[in-house]
Design brief:
Layout lengths: L2 H6 L4 H11 L11 E5 L2 E4 L4 E4 L2 H4 L8 H11 L12 H14 L3 E5 L2 H21 L7 E5 L8 H5 L4 H4 L9 E4 L4 H7 L4 E7 L1 E2 L5 E2 L2 H14 L2 E5 L23 E4 L10 E5 L1 H4 L15 H16 L2 H22 L3 E7 L2 E6 L2 H13 L2 E2 L1 E3 L3 E4 L7 H18 L18
Parallel strand pairs: 3-15, 5-6, 5-7, 7-10, 10-11
Antiparallel strand pairs: 1-2, 2-3, 4-12, 8-9, 11-12, 13-14, 14-17, 16-17
Helix pairs in contact: 4-12, 5-12, 13-15, 14-15
Length: 429
């Protein structure tokens, strides 16, 4: 223990920054903001300033902050068990699994702790499933087709299916057998697919890649190709799932059912949890001892995830997310007709991206919003990303759009004659 740090007992922002600089591995570039509490859709810093949160912990705090159903579930569970181990039973796992299978249409669940762990389990299941098919005399390889501009996580397997080189190169060689195809290019997907492929891996809406929804034609082609050989269709819903788009899973807008899907971020409202769900047929590839986790499916995480699902149902938040998302997107597309610096507006529900003409402009807008105490972030260099809590209101949206309009008028180019350009296919309506 460093006596200097021990004696200082860091509490202010500067003290905490100094302590982290000495103690933490430097993997994050943090904003100089010390958050201490939250209420509803607002966060509060150590000086009492409130910030409208349009990011919700990068898509995690779906019910906002200090939601009574979460605080009640947390208090109740703290009086029972926080952890047991997977050597014993507790009530939460089957109760949560029942809810998740009902809302996804899949049959079985593996619980873990994070999105990247859920995706790692999906990749392992795909390889194990192919091995099982080969044992039955089927011709199927071990290759995986992933998408350009994809992001699936930071573990070595997940990283192998993540496209951007800056994430992969420092850790190469990563897991072999992964090839990338252009997202939404049906011809390229068909050309790359063969009996050597055991899985097609798709984010239904690419998050880190700039909020790009998959097209109907592409997802249908992926389903058809997998069905032709027995390969598994893996759909990553870590950012787009659990109601973010106005349905429980974004794939439900398309009428295509995956063999495997992964959930995480908002599942327990802020407590770490991940889940991989699959069909009965796919689940047969895993047998006892083949995969596991120490903390996955613990009583605390399960109790909070149950509370989140039940509250989304009780308060009809899927309907709210869908309608508010249409309003939000409509207002943003209205701005697009006035500001030529807006290249595209994309998204579904409350998963929205605004692509600007340059990285420098995106940085300026982000800084200006922070100065107005509105939190969002930038992804894919030029895209402003909005992932607010599901309890956001129209008044909140209007406040955000007024601030964004002011900043675009200051930093961007105006063109009242510009026609809106909509990237991507309108999925629902």
């Amino acid at each position: 223990m460093n006596p200097e740090i021990e004696s200082s007992k860091p509490g202010s922002l500067k003290e905490i920054q100094a302590a982290e600089a000495k103690l933490l591995i430097q993997t994050y570039e943090r904003n100089p903001l010390l958050l201490v509490s939250g209420q509803g859709v607002h966060l509060r810093d150590e000086q009492g300033n409130e910030y409208l949160d349009l990011l919700s912990g990068i898509g995690v705090c779906a019910l906002g902050y200090q939601h009574p159903v979460l605080t009640s579930a947390l208090q109740q569970q703290s009086q029972g068990l926080l952890h047991t181990s997977n050597l014993f039973y507790h009530r939460g796992t089957s109760e949560l699994a029942l809810r998740l299978t009902e809302i996804t249409g899949l049959d079985r669940v593996f619980f873990c702790n994070t999105g990247t762990e859920a995706w790692e389990a999906a990749l392992k299941l795909a390889r194990a499933h192919a091995r099982r098919l080969r044992s039955q005399g089927r011709k199927i390889g071990t290759g995986i087709l992933a998408m350009e501009d994809s992001f699936h996580g930071r573990t070595i397997g997940s990283l192998a299916t993540t496209h951007k080189l800056k994430y992969r190169e420092p850790f190469e060689p990563v897991m072999p057998g992964v090839s990338f195809v252009p997202f939404n290019n049906v011809a390229a997907l068909r050309a790359a697919f063969s009996s050597e492929i055991c899985a097609i891996a798709i984010e239904v809406i690419q998050g880190e890649g700039g909020i790009h929804p998959v097209s109907r034609q592409f997802l249908a082609a992926a389903r058809e190709l997998c069905d032709s050989t027995g390969a598994l269709l893996l759909l990553d819903e870590i950012q787009s799932g659990m109601g973010r788009t106005g349905r429980w899973c974004a794939y439900q807008h398309y009428g295509v059912q995956p063999d495997v899907t992964t959930l995480a971020k908002p599942l327990a409202g802020g407590v770490p949890i991940g889940a991989m769900l699959c069909t009965e047929e796919a689940s047969l590839a895993f047998t006892p001892g083949m995969h596991g986790t120490t903390f996955g499916g613990n009583p605390l995480a399960c109790s909070l995830a149950i509370a989140v699902i039940d509250e989304i149902k009780r308060s009809r938040l899927l309907d709210h997310v869908a309608s508010l998302g249409e309003y939000f997107l409509g207002r943003l597309r209205g701005l697009q007709t006035s500001f030529s610096c807006i290249r595209a507006v994309r998204g579904m529900g409350l998963m929205i991206g605004v692509e600007l003409e340059s990285e420098s402009l995106a940085r300026q807008i982000l800084q200006g919003m922070m100065e107005r105490r509105i939190i969002l972030n930038r992804t894919h260099e030029t895209v402003l990303r909005f992932l607010p809590p599901y309890i956001l209101s129209r008044q909140d949206v209007d406040h955000v759009l007024d601030a964004l309009s002011e900043l675009l008028a200051t930093h961007g180019n105006s063109s009242t004659e510009k026609t809106a350009v909509m990237d991507g296919e309108k999925i629902h309506g």
